[in-house]
Design goal:
Structural class: alpha/beta
Strand content: 5-15%
Number of strands: 9
Strand order of the largest sheet: 5-4-3-7-8
Order of helices and strands: EHEHEEEHEEEHEHHHHHHHH
Bound molecules: iron/sulfur cluster
Shape: elongated
């Protein structure tokens, strides 16, 4: 199967409900988010609004993270009410109800859903927020319950590079779940073969360890193979690969047919790689040229490689906020 006609299994993604699903923010508004709207048909969304769920109402007086008696609490200044116990109880209960997740998209800065840099106040007295920042209660519970899935907020995902890698991870995890559901050695070997170049770009040593598991020299039973593979797989997307690493893999693919190309085509591509290295074009620009050649020369091994299109083409949107550090959550 070629990269253009691949069927992508739907990742199960937790999304804070106020992003494109319901007008449930404290002010009764919904967050409009282009990429979540585009993503909806390609995923199985799992949504919650923890603040509405514990009965704070819509709209409601805002809540904040405060230190009180040395403890981090959720506090509603307008009513003088602490919400910590209700929220902790809800988070604890719901984590067992969410089921399998391949990733999560959280509302940034929220004292419930924010996964990083949420403002913390020094006390319940009116004051400016402290320098120290924390996670919202729901985000924290999610990160503890799902330590290996990519969890991002919608603000960071406006950065094209972070979004591209988030999509790569979630669609790969969903494809692995499909192989696992088949549960055969062939399904595991096929999954690994098709992801080989992708894994090579991300982390060569983990790729080799995954290869050893699929080779199964120690003749473990299937269940143990899948379990060992899955636990290693969670290491592969720890970090966004450097551009140099992506270029090495692209050159590896290019080597399959470079002698069949005109010299001006070769130069065009090598110039494009340099432009990508300088950060002036996205990875997808280089991949689309390579993909066209993979199809033209009908390179069977390359045609199945997820590296060329790790997620549905419809989701390639190079709009970029220009913000974000480029590093994913340390998994
Ligand atoms: S950030 Fe979370 S708690 Fe706040 S409105 Fe959105 S879903 Fe609800």
């Amino acid at each position: 199967m070629g990269s253009h006609d691949r069927v992508y299994p739907k990742p199960r993604i937790f999304i804070s409900r106020c992003i494109e699903f319901e007008a449930c923010r404290w002010n009764g508004a919904m967050i409009s988010c282009d990429f979540v709207r585009a993503l909806k048909p390609f995923i199985e969304p799992v949504t919650r609004c923890p603040e509405a769920a514990i009965g704070l109402g819509i709209p409601r007086d805002p809540i904040r993270l405060v230190y009180s008696n040395g403890k981090l609490e959720l506090y509603q200044p307008a009513t003088g009410r602490f919400i910590t116990n209700e929220m902790s109880k809800y988070c604890h209960q719901e984590m067992s109800q969410l089921g399998i997740l391949d990733g999560a998209i959280l509302k940034e800065k929220s004292p419930s859903c924010g996964n990083r840099e949420v403002k913390v106040y020094a006390s319940i007295e009116p004051s400016a927020p402290q320098h120290s920042k924390s996670q919202g209660f729901w985000a924290n519970a999610l990160m503890v319950a799902y330590p290996h899935i990519p969890i991002e907020n919608e603000g960071r995902l406006n950065n094209f590079s972070i979004r591209e890698h988030f999509y790569t991870a979630i669609f790969t995890y969903a494809a692995f779940r499909n192989a696992k559901a088949l549960g055969t050695m062939k399904a595991l070997i096929d999954f690994h073969s098709c992801n080989k170049l992708l894994f090579m770009a991300y982390n060569q040593s983990v790729m080799r360890e995954l290869g050893r598991i699929t080779a199964n020299h120690t003749e473990q039973n299937l269940q143990s193979c899948y379990a060992a593979y899955e636990s290693k797989l969670t290491h592969i997307f720890k970090k966004i690969p450097r551009r140099g690493s992506m270029i090495n893999v692209m050159l590896h693919g290019f080597g399959y047919f470079s002698d069949k190309l005109e010299s001006r085509e070769r130069s065009y591509f090598l110039d494009l790689l340099n432009t990508y290295l300088a950060g002036r074009v996205p990875l997808s620009a280089c991949l689309s040229v390579l993909t066209a050649w993979v199809e033209r020369f009908n390179e069977t091994y390359l045609r199945c490689q997820t590296f060329f299109r790790p997620y549905p083409q419809e989701l390639i949107d190079i709009t970029d906020s220009g913000k974000g550090s480029g590093s994913m959550r340390e998994l």
